[in-house]
Amino acid sequence: MSDSRQLLARISAFRAKLEETPRLVPAAAEDELPTNPSNRLSTVFREALVTEPAQLTGRAFRLLSEARDLVGQQKQLADDSIIVRSDSGDALARFHRHTIGLTDSALRLAQVFPAAAEPQLRMCDGFEQLLRVIRGRLGVLEHAISLRRADAGRIARIADLLMAMHAGKAVSAGAFFDVAELILDDARQGARLRFVYRDPATDGVAKFVAAHALNVGQVLARLVPHDYEWAMKPALPIVAALVMDAGMLEVPAELLAKTEALTIEERRLIERHPLRSAELLNRSIANAESLAEIVIAHHERLDGSGYHRGCQAEEIGSLPRLLAVADTYTARMADRPHRPALDPRTALTDTLLDAEAGKLDRDFAEYLMHLSFHPVGTVVELTDGRIAVVAATHDGRANLRATMRPVVAVLVDVRGELLPRPNFVDLASTGAGSIVRALTAAERREKLADAYPDLCV
């Protein structure tokens, strides 16, 4: 981001010049200038220009002051650690650099403001439009940063709690319930389902585990309202998701980051984590016995093919069955060291097939249909080549065809050009095409990072 920092420094140089520039007339009198040339203020204006040609009208001064404030806002964003300072193609950094470029254009325009009042005021029209664009982009950037900051904060909080458990420290169950309530609030407000990832090799095992726990919790927050048993106590399943992989902190980072197939010994080491998670819970959290029993069974499968105990069917409780469904689906929806995230339609279909084969609970698996084959926020390609984001879904359990044809906001037209504003289409009630596939993270960055960085976070 050094190039952005240098550009911001150059852009902010006009602050001092602006402060030293005298105002020609008060802002309240400015509107009289273009409409009434014979006005006394217009005469004062002309006389002042002869002696002080650098003076500004009230409108110009106000706009330049706004530009100064926008530069200050951008400088604060450039110092924000959430924006990745690299040339890796990070969507937020790229969007920020382009916004800085627009501000540089505004500066160049400001530096050639004419001395005469009327052309100066006419130039203000274009200058004001440019500032409006910059202001809008900064609003989009701040929203995207807030999403990333929220995810980073929750991951850090979960990781800290898991590391405290791993270190043998006493941990309050209330701390996990606090995080669970934040996750539930997002779901209640209809927030987009975002699957985050942390690399175990670079970010550490604790954050890798915490990111997956957060993902599972977010899925559960959207499933439990549909279950009669857990709808009245929705936080408990999410807390179980947050702690179920605590034992994974004992697995070496290089093993979790491995891209090749695991050996039998490596797989056995990983398969110990439900037991270790339960032991850590009983050691670190008071009265956690029932929660530990849930956690120890979250990798059991109805056909007996799971672990740690190889339980079958009714031997597996309700909440471990629900956790197994959410965990399986989430693992497919998020990136992994050995593979990228699966297409949402593939992830849901494969999870339903596991239930059909007798591995997962069929009723809980069908709850995933409420997310639909393309959850809200999924960026998709339509049959005619347009790019859209899923804005709303239909009830998948009532109508399978409808869940595959959600309401979308079209962002890119058939020529590959960004639309000036989203065009909302209900694919279930029109013949305006259907969804071909979901875009990968790399494709989202390529096609949308310059306008919708929040969809690339």
Briefly, what is this?
The chain has 457 residues and is of the alpha+beta class. Helix content is 55%, strand content 6%. The chain has three domains: 2-147, no CATH class; 168-370, Hypothetical protein af1432; 379-456, no CATH class.
Description:
- This protein has helices spanning 2-11, 14-20, 32-35, 40-51, 58-78, 91-110, 117-166, 173-188, 200-203, 205-223, 235-243, 253-256, 264-270, 273-284, 289-296, 318-333, 344-356, 362-367, 400-403, 441-448, and strands spanning 379-382, 387-392, 407-412, 418-426, 435-438.
- Strands 4-3-2-1-5 form a 5-stranded antiparallel sheet, with helices on one face.
- With 457 residues, it is of the alpha+beta class.
- The chain has 3 domains: 2-147, no CATH class; 168-370, Orthogonal Bundle (Hypothetical protein af1432), CATH 1.10.3210; 379-456, no CATH class.
- It starts with a helix and ends in a 9-residue tail after the last helix.
- Residues 23-53 have low confidence and may be disordered.
- Helix 8 crosses helix 10.
- The protein has 20 helices and 5 strands.
